Amino acid sequence: MTNQTKEIARRRTFGIVAHPDAGKTTLTEKLLLFGGAIQVAGAVKSNKIKKSTTSDFMEIERQRGISVATSVMAFDYAEKKINILDTPGHKDFAEDTYRTLTAVDSVIVVIDVAKGVEEQTEKLVEVCRMRKTPVIVFINKMDRPGKESFDLLDEVEQKLLLRCTPLSWPIGMGDRFQGVYNVFEKRLVLFRPDNKQGRPEETIEFNDLEDPELEQLVGTAAAEELREEVEMINEVYPVFDREEYLKQEVSPVFFGSAVNNFGVKELLDCFVQIAPEPRPRPAEERQVLPNEETFSGFVFKIHANMDPRHRDRIAFLRICSGTFERNTNYLHVRQQRKMKFANPTSFMAERKEVIDEAFAGDVVGLYDSGNFKIGDTLTEGEELHFKGIPSFSPEQFRRVYNGDPLKSKQLAKGIDQLMDEGVAQLFTRGVDNAQIIGCVGALQFDVIQYRLEHEYGATVLYEPMNLHKALWVTCDDDAALDEFKERRRQHLALDKEERLVYLADSAWTLQMAKDNHPKIQFHATSEL
Ligand code: GDP
């Protein structure tokens, strides 16, 4: 086996998705503790926007700073190299999360036992389902009173459309939470609260639940209940099959309490056994396999530098095939030119380091002075365009004006670069050349205004617009398309890639347009 083959085979690149507050940051931190990537709890800062109606820009900056630090967290565990890609939970940053999901090979979904399946989780898992990304479910906060376990699994199956198979099962919950029975390994893991620094859990091999020792350990009532429930699990849920999990036909479920560091090791130990190696990635031209001889990768995220004196940014590149090397010429496919990188960076939770090489499955940070945008591909020379990096139909719109005539160049450049970062989308309306910015969440407008001022010295003014949606338009029939363009002229714009976009005033006008122009296709997402 070559070194490259070996290195790729030991990579496990995944994302943790959750509705805000379910415990994603806490779980991430505990995983890093096990991996030795951090030494103390509290080292991973939550990148949540704390106030929902924020015009508190320090908060936005704080969040951006943390996002750079937590974009990728890598550590070694059980001879695997684990890369956790961070996914913002706040819904105004959902686009960022969707794009990050194109760069992972599997996902862990965290669910709060009391709240059950929440809105953001539904949306994020839908994206995973579309891509057939394998999913593991972690039910968190078992030390708190919550929903009954069977009800919760029903909810997961109904709302997330995932077929479950529990690999661990809780013994009580809230005040009466005593631990979990590991159905997969036939072990009893007993709960000791306040195990924040990650001491090993008390684990007892327990092959036969009929063994009277169970009563001694958890009490008669709990022992009876556990026996009944495990019997039911065996009847109701499929026996775990890794192949089915990898095809996303079944999702293993774990129970635990991240803040108490309980059930986390169970989760991690199982994860390293079952989670997929780097998976093939579809490009327009062909399927790209991780272990190919030549390197290829794509940019899924761009972060502006936090230091205003340096305008450069960090582009995050997922390596899809081969080995990436420092100071080596690669082809920037969109720009058709060679580039090499003197300081490619890897991220290890608290520290960054310059790396000499990285392998398929890894993410490297490339310093960039404005050459990259999301979706860009690097290769050793082959024309490849990786597919599936989405941009979404925005739902909030503002017309933009230049607030400082002396700074129009700065404004144009700033807007251009922020759009490349994927903060929002810019549309130019055909009839009057109006510049319209569309976002998924309203918070982005504040971010854009603030950053234009602080990073580019430009002033942007907004005028609210009453638009319902912007949808990409395609049509195979040229005559029908011409007719549509003529009749809906007032409502048409081009995006930055010069693709045709229909700006719908309301759901009603959109429906009218669909009815009147049946040959036109309207798309809520477009691939970058
Ligand atoms: P995130 O928004 O998903 O990143 O959630 P956090 O990790 O920041 O957790 C949200 C809150 O839930 C914090 O106050 C955590 O301390 C708390 N929390 C996390 N895990 C548990 C748990 O297992 N039990 C309890 N009781 N609280 C938890």
Automatic annotation (TrEMBL):
Main location: cytoplasm
Pfam families per UniProt: EF-G_D2 (PF22042), GTP_EFTU (PF00009), RF3_C (PF16658)
InterPro entries named among the record's database cross-references: EF-G-like_DII, EFG_III/V, G_TR_CS, P-loop_NTPase, PrfC, RF3_C, RF3_dom_3_sf, RF3_GTP-bd
Family per record: Belongs to the TRAFAC class translation factor GTPase superfamily. Classic translation factor GTPase family. PrfC subfamily.
Name this polypeptide is given: Peptide chain release factor 3
Name of the gene: prfC
UniProt domain Tr-type G: residue ranges: 9-279
Keywords, sorted A to Z: Cytoplasm, GTP-binding, Nucleotide-binding, Protein biosynthesis
Residues the entry annotates as binding GTP: D86, T87, P88, G89, H90, N140, K141, M142, D143
Compartment(s): Cytoplasm
Gene3D superfamilies: P-loop containing nucleotide triphosphate hydrolases, Peptide chain release factor 3, domain III, Translation factors
Function in brief: Increases the formation of ribosomal termination complexes and stimulates activities of RF-1 and RF-2. It binds guanine nucleotides and has strong preference for UGA stop codons. It may interact directly with the ribosome. The stimulation of RF-1 and RF-2 is significantly reduced by GTP and GDP, but not by GMP.
Native organism: Neolewinella antarctica
